[in-house]
Write a structure and sequence with these properties.
By secondary structure, this protein is an alpha+beta fold. It contains six helices and six strands; from the N terminus they run αββααααβββαβ. Helix content is about 40%, strand content about 25%. A four-stranded antiparallel sheet has the order 3-4-5-6, with helices on one face. Strand 3 and strand 4 form a beta hairpin. The longest helix has about 50 residues. The chain is rod-shaped, with a radius of gyration of 40 Å. The C terminus is likely disordered.
């Protein structure tokens, strides 16, 4: 049975339309898969970029300390547990040395004198002897014979690296608090001590090993008062008409 000649054109157009629609559906599906694959690659690249940049976006907390009396500013970094054993021991001895040698109390004067001498080099011990001699009017024994005392509070220890003549350099910031015989605070002074030091091994003398078992030796010492900066300029006064 032959089809109606008038329907042949219509049937041919229908077949062509259905074929084209099927091809368009397949092309759309391929295009969608390509877009999805591209988006997945972009997301993966973005995730990798964020992972690489995470250390750069980390928040690092720090503490800024301002001294209420001198205005000195320093930054205290957080302790990460990475301090070397040598620096930890050196910090202890530096704090101990300044505390013992700069404080004064008649009840501990003799022991502190021997303790301080156990850390000093021979040259510094000669200077210590001259400083404490009774014939020196500025000797602590003469200045504090009225019962007054000096207290020391360590504030910070900074390592400056190697010294020119060997050994190491460090700075110790501390506060000297002078007290009257009754214990009332007379004055407070901020000081910076620049200390040259080294480790020479265990001392020979048993009495020295009692104070200084590791042979911490101070080879140079320079004391400097920590003062405020220059006073701000005053504004000129206006003249009255």
């Amino acid at each position: 049975m032959s089809a109606d000649p008038s329907l042949r054109g219509y049937l041919a157009d229908a077949v062509t339309w259905d074929t084209e629609r099927t091809l368009q559906t397949q092309l759309s599906a391929r295009r969608a898969w390509r877009v999805a694959a591209g988006a997945s690659l972009c997301v993966l690249a973005l995730a990798l970029a964020i992972a690489v940049m995470m250390p750069l976006k980390r928040v690092e907390p720090y503490l800024i300390r301002v001294d209420a009396r001198t205005g000195a500013v320093d930054v205290l970094p957080p302790y990460r547990g990475g301090a070397t054993f040598g620096k930890t021991i050196a910090r202890y001895f530096l704090m101990r040395y300044i505390s013992v040698c700069e404080r004064f109390d008649y009840a501990m004067a003799a022991a502190d004198y021997q303790h301080c001498g156990a850390f000093n080099s021979s040259r510094l011990n000669e200077a210590l002897y001259a400083r404490w001699a009774r014939g020196n009017p500025h000797s602590p024994l003469n200045i504090h014979r009225d019962g007054s005392s000096v207290e020391v509070r360590i504030q910070a220890v900074s390592f400056l690296g190697r010294a020119l003549g060997g050994g190491h350099l460090a700075q110790v910031r501390f506060e000297r608090i002078s007290r009257q015989p009754g214990g009332t605070v007379r004055n407070r002074r901020q000081w910076i001590a620049t200390v040259g030091y080294r480790f020479t091994g265990a001392p020979v003398h048993a009495a020295t090993r009692r104070w200084n078992p590791l042979g911490f030796e101070v080879t140079a010492l320079e004391m400097e008062r920590e003062t405020l900066g220059s006073a701000p300029a005053r504004l000129p006064r206006r003249r009255r008409p």
